[in-house]
């Protein structure tokens, strides 16, 4: 529900969520009444449409169909879109298998952009190796077996710096564990050496994580092409592989697929013109490539925002950016940034002052996530609301975000500052361009997991709708502030961050 406020002097109508505790300002309030912002039925229908396109990896048919759907829905509102196409070499795995002495070993997933094999696979003796460039050389001419253990010794203070939270007692785990963080930390620096190792294949074993949690994990997706075939197995299957390696047995690994040269993908944007300040703008962004209901459903949330703001435009211009490349970062990012960095580089006039001057940004990712964790070795639901990790670019926009939360019925949120040059999610490129952002990047353990039902059993529709309303309100509150009142992004904090 929304409240409509008619400003007594200007006659301009302002719209706020129905739960907004409107504070009387200069000019006063003439009348307030309610209307629907959007319906849950509409949001769920859009989610079902997105899921119908299947896995939406960068350059895939699924992503292309989803992008076409988003553009079509936007055009129905009367807005136009501007699109930029890119070409890259797209890797795809169609099937994979692992056998030891004729016994089939279940694979939990294939390492993205690892090597492909002939149809008959590659066969070699199993050898246990350490997760290091030196260790992988031990697998020359063989199939290496490496254990990837859940994080527990690296302090979260290295990557995170908490501003505050609601409720106040929320804390960041002392060591931010799980498949996503573990795969990034433990393969990013070491697996780049695989292409020079001479190994026939590598088998990675997930450790200290339940078999259900690690199923279908599309990790690590930010590596360049590895050349060597790499597959993941869960701990149960891993025990079988390690036993076979100790007995000096051989295995056969197959990773069938293709590399499409010059595959096409695109980013696009639309602009809702401001009613007063036609030079300044607020950027709202997300990415369109993804794997399941939450990664990435930001585009669905932005559709609702577009429909609302098209009917009720803000004083400033609103730029809605839908970017590609999140799941092929080595080819789409600039520097060590996220995919939106390519968009900002290719559309500089949208934010650098030549056409528009971006004074703030809102990044919308991973909506409607419930929390699932391993408890005593069993993967299970632990909360109806996963903790919303939200980066805020400075103290002023942090205050705006918490004001936007007032009245939420379901909420567990924590704001962070970019720390030690780390900032997860597509808000980072805005932050790096000194555009103060409010960037949602909830990180459930199933974030990068492929599932036949897209993990819709873990979806919270009420939460997603409240999160969309929160970002509508963030934009409204930002629009009421001058550029000076919003300020600039603070920059990264350094050293050991706060966890509580």
User: Which structural class fits the helix and strand makeup?
Assistant: alpha/beta
Instruction: State Rg.
Output: 24 Å
Number of strands: 20
> What's the overall geometry?
globular
* Mean pLDDT rating: 92
Low-confidence stretches: 1-35
| Percent range for β-strand residues | 25-35%
Helix share, percent: 10-25%
Intertermini distance:
34 Å
Assembly status: single chain
Give an overview of the whole structure.
It is a single chain. This protein has 500 residues and is α/β, with parallel strands linked by helices. The protein is 24% helix and 29% strand. It is built from 13 helices and 20 strands. The chain has a 15-stranded mixed beta sheet that branches. α7 crosses α12 and α10 crosses α12.
Q: Summary?
A:
This protein has 500 residues and is of the alpha/beta class.
Helix/strand layout:
Layout: E1 2-7, E2 13-17, E3 29-35, H1 40-52, H2 61-76, E4 82-100, E5 103-105, E6 109-110, E7 122-128, H3 133-137, E8 143-149, E9 162-166, H4 179-187, E10 201-207, H5 211-214, E11 230-233, H6 235-246, E12 250-272, E13 277-287, H7 298-311, E14 316-323, H8 329-332, H9 340-346, E15 357-363, E16 371-375, E17 378-383, E18 388-392, H10 395-404, E19 413-416, H11 428-432, E20 437-440, H12 461-479, H13 483-486
Parallel strand pairs: 7-8, 8-10, 10-11, 13-14, 13-15, 15-20, 18-19
Antiparallel strand pairs: 1-2, 1-3, 4-5, 4-12, 6-11, 7-12, 9-19, 12-14, 16-17, 18-20
Helix pairs in contact: 7-12, 10-12
């Amino acid at each position: 529900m929304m409240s409509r406020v008619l400003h007594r002097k200007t006659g301009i109508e302002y719209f706020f969520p129905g739960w907004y505790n409107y504070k009387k300002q200069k000019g006063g309030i003439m009348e307030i009444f309610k209307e629907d912002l959007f319906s849950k039925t509409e949001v769920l229908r859009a989610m079902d449409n997105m899921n119908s396109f299947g896995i939406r990896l960068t350059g895939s048919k699924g992503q292309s169909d989803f992008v076409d759907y988003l553009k079509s829905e936007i055009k129905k509102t009367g807005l136009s879109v501007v699109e930029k196409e890119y070409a890259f070499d797209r890797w795809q795995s169609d099937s994979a298998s692992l056998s030891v002495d004729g016994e089939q070993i279940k694979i939990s997933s294939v390492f993205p952009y690892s090597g492909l094999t002939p149809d008959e696979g590659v066969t070699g003796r199993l050898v246990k190796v350490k997760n290091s460039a030196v260790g992988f050389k031990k697998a020359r001419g063989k199939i290496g077996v490496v254990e990837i253990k859940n994080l527990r010794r690296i302090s979260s203070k290295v990557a995170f710096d908490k501003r505050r939270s609601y409720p106040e007692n929320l804390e960041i785990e002392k060591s931010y564990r799980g498949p996503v963080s573990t795969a990034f930390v433990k393969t990013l620096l070491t697996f780049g050496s695989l292409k020079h190792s001479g190994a026939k294949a590598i088998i990675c074993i997930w450790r200290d994580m339940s078999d259900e949690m690690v199923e279908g994990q599309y990790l690590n997706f930010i590596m360049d092409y590895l050349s060597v075939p790499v597959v993941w197995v869960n701990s149960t299957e891993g025990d079988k592989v390690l036993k076979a390696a100790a007995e000096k047995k051989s295995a056969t690994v197959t990773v069938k697929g293709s590399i499409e040269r010059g595959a096409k993908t695109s980013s696009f944007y639309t602009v809702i013109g401001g009613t007063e300040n036609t030079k300044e703008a607020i950027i709202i962004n997300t990415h369109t490539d993804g794997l399941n209901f939450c990664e990435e459903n930001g585009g669905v949330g932005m559709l609702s925002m577009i429909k609302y703001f098209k009917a009720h435009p803000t004083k400033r211009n609103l730029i809605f950016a839908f970017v590609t490349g999140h799941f092929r970062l080595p080819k789409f990012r600039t520097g060590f940034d996220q995919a939106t960095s390519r968009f900002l580089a290719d559309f500089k006039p949208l934010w650098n002052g030549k056409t528009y001057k971006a004074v703030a940004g809102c990044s919308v990712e991973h909506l409607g996530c419930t929390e699932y964790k391993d408890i005593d070795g069993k993967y299970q639901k632990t909360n109806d609301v996963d903790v919303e990790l939200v980066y805020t670019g400075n103290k002023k926009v942090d205050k705006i975000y918490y004001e936007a939360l007032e009245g939420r019925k379901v909420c567990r949120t924590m704001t962070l500052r970019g720390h030690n040059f780390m900032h997860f999610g597509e808000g980072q490129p805005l932050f790096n361009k000194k555009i103060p952002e409010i960037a949602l990047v909830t990180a459930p353990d199933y974030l990068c997991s492929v599932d036949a039902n897209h993990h819709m059993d873990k979806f919270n529709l009420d939460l997603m709708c409240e999160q969309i309303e929160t970002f509508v309100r963030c934009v409204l509150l930002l629009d009421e502030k001058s550029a000076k009142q919003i300020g600039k992004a603070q920059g990264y904090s350094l050293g050991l961050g706060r966890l509580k």
